[in-house]
TrEMBL record:
GO terms for biological process: phosphorelay signal transduction system. It comes from the Bacteria. The modification 4-aspartylphosphate is found at residue 57. This is Response regulator receiver domain-containing protein. PANTHER family: HISTIDINE KINASE, HYBRID SIGNAL TRANSDUCTION HISTIDINE KINASE J. Gene3D superfamilies: 3.40.50.2300. Keywords: Phosphoprotein. Residues 8-127 form the Response regulatory domain. PROSITE patterns: RESPONSE_REGULATORY. The keyword Cell inner membrane does not apply. The lineage of its organism: Bacteria, Pseudomonadati, Pseudomonadota, Alphaproteobacteria, Rhodobacterales.
Length: 137
């Protein structure tokens, strides 16, 4: 179980099966997830509400996760919002994909499929590094 308490998590994932899996993982960790199916919807949700963490699939329709992360970082800068940790979820094991994530302002990268343990450990590490947890309004 995570030592750091997460209350609000934004999960951007277009695959319904992955949505269910990661939503269940987050529930098991005691977090409430807002689930959206595109980068555009993720940016809209982020504009409306503060989240402890954003978990972003890279390959989504309309707007991919890299572009959505860039827009979220720009929104934080424009509005003076604190930096929210963003973790990429991807099936791509390529180093270039990881670099693209980091260049877009994402803080971590997790390869799918991910076990609950791998997901929980990656999330805990991300949150601990960012010094976040239970800060969503």
């Amino acid at each position: 179980m995570m030592e750091t308490k997460l209350r609000e998590v934004l999960l951007a994932e277009d695959n319904p099966t992955n949505q269910m899996i990661f939503h269940a993982y987050l529930g098991k960790l005691g977090a409430r997830a807002t689930v959206v199916g595109s980068g555009t919807a993720a940016v809209r949700a982020f504009a409306r509400q503060a989240f402890d963490v954003v978990i972003m699939d890279l390959q989504m329709p309309v707007m991919d996760g890299v572009e959505a992360a860039r827009k979220i970082r720009a929104m934080e800068a424009q509005n003076g919002r604190p930096r929210t940790p963003i973790m990429a979820l991807t099936a791509d094991t390529d180093e270039d994909a990881r670099d693209d994530c980091l260049d877009a302002g994402m803080d971590a990268h997790l390869v799918k499929p991910a076990t609950f343990t791998a997901f929980a450990e990656a999330l805990e590490s991300l949150v601990r590094k960012a010094g976040k947890g239970s800060q969503a309004a």
